[in-house]
Specification:
Elements (H helix, E strand, L loop, with lengths): L2 E7 L7 E3 L4 E7 L4 E6 L8 E7 L2 E8 L2 E8 L10 E8 L2 E6 L7 E4 L7 E6 L6 E7 L17 E5 L9 E4 L3 E9 L2 E8 L4 E6 L2 E5 L2 E5 L4 E6 L3 E2 L4 E4 L6 E9 L2 E8 L4 E6 L2 E5 L1 E6 L11 E2 L30 H9 L9
Antiparallel strand pairs: 1-12, 2-11, 3-8, 3-12, 4-5, 4-11, 5-6, 6-7, 8-9, 9-10, 13-19, 14-15, 15-16, 15-19, 16-17, 17-18, 20-27, 21-28, 22-23, 23-24, 23-27, 24-25, 25-26
């Protein structure tokens, strides 16, 4: 909760700074006039904006930045009272610093501003004999919460039927949340979607949506979706199965289709992601692929794809467990474009 503060400012007193966390501040003041309010971006002697309230029947706002001083003034007789508190507000946003009275929306005076990063406010008097009484609510200071790293959550396949495991990974939506499954089908192990309201899974294969009641569900949370297209697959993409001849690995992908986001399979030789939608198998060249961010710390977000069939003369094995993997350069004339594609996502933290 806010802290209610009542204080008295004396001539030449030591300035007390109050931290503000918003772009406006309201206060009450009682005295004969000559009130002084400073707005600061840092704790220092000089301020960005200085407000003289009812100074010899005038109110001024002075802006000081880069050795340039701008001042605006308005005649405001009897603005303050020596016998009662009067409420005012100050705001600094939208390119203006403004001072207003009580509940009036129209400010008494305003000035164009270049800096709105005000973090501190201070009160005082600009007369050697003036004593002022102030009241205001100081906003509470919220400490930045410490982020606790999340451990665990490694993705894994869990056997299921009509009931989802507790940590099943949400893969998309189609009038409801969809989940990622894989199931055997005609010699293949193919990923697809699980629809909770039906208690059934569906995988794309052979131009059709194939219903499954027994399957594995992808569980965990240590993964993310990366935009991809055609046969360009990040090296840390999650493998999820294999084709019917067992010669091609399949990956988890998802596609936006008719307002839905549907998980399915990425088949590199076809250069598309397939999804099961209604009773059909739908293909898309633009899709997202599921990756484990820490699966390969040396990848630096580079993208690899297998070479076209018949062009197997440049072996460069990088993963003996799954056979050879090749970096593709489709055309020597496109080296510059490929470099742009590989490095378009590079960030500073990739090299830390």
């Amino acid at each position: 909760m806010a802290e209610h503060i009542e204080m008295t400012t004396w001539p030449k007193h030591k300035t007390i700074f109050y931290k503000v966390t918003s772009s406006a501040f309201s206060f009450e003041v009682k005295g004969p006039g000559n009130a002084l309010i400073g707005l600061f971006s840092t704790l220092k002697k000089s301020c960005e904006y200085l407000i003289h309230l009812d100074y010899n029947s005038y109110t001024h706002i002075t802006s000081s930045s880069n050795q340039r001083v701008t001042r605006r003034g308005e005649r405001t007789p009897n603005l303050m009272s020596d016998t009662e508190y009067r409420r005012f507000w100050i705001s600094w946003y939208g390119g203006w610093v403004a001072l207003g009275s009580n509940n009036e929306n129209v400010p008494i005076i305003s000035i164009a501003s270049l800096k709105n990063n005000i973090k501190y406010i201070a009160f005082g008097t600009c007369d050697d004999r003036n004593v002022l009484n102030w009241r205001f609510d100081s906003p509470p200071l919220f400490k930045q919460p410490k982020l606790k790293p999340i451990s665990g959550g490694t993705v894994q396949w869990v056997e299921a039927d009509t009931q989802l495991p507790d940590d099943a990974l949400i893969g998309g939506y189609e009038n409801e949340f969809l989940y990622i499954i894989r199931a055997p089908h005609r010699g293949s192990l193919t990923p697809g979607k699980f629809v909770p309201s039906l208690g059934l899974g569906f995988i794309p294969w052979g131009g059709s949506s194939n219903e499954k009641s027994e399957f594995e569900v992808l569980c965990g949370h240590d993964c993310s979706w990366v935009p991809s297209n055609s046969d360009r697959i990040p090296v840390d993409a999650i493998e999820c199965g294999f084709s019917e001849d067992r010669l091609e690995r399949l990956y988890v992908g998802r596609v936006r289709h008719m307002g839905h986001l549907i998980p399915g399979k990425v088949q590199l030789s076809h250069k598309v992601c397939y999804i099961a939608f209604e009773e059909r198998e739908i293909s898309a060249k633009e899709y997202e692929v599921l990756v484990c961010p820490n699966a390969n710390p040396y990848s630096i977000k580079r993208v690899f794809a297998p070479p076209p069939f018949g062009d197997m003369n440049i072996p460069n094995a990088i993963n003996e467990e799954y056979g050879n993997e090749y970096e593709v350069d489709d055309d020597d004339d496109d080296d510059e474009d490929d470099d742009n594609y590989f490095n378009a996502e590079l960030e500073e933290e990739d090299f830390e």
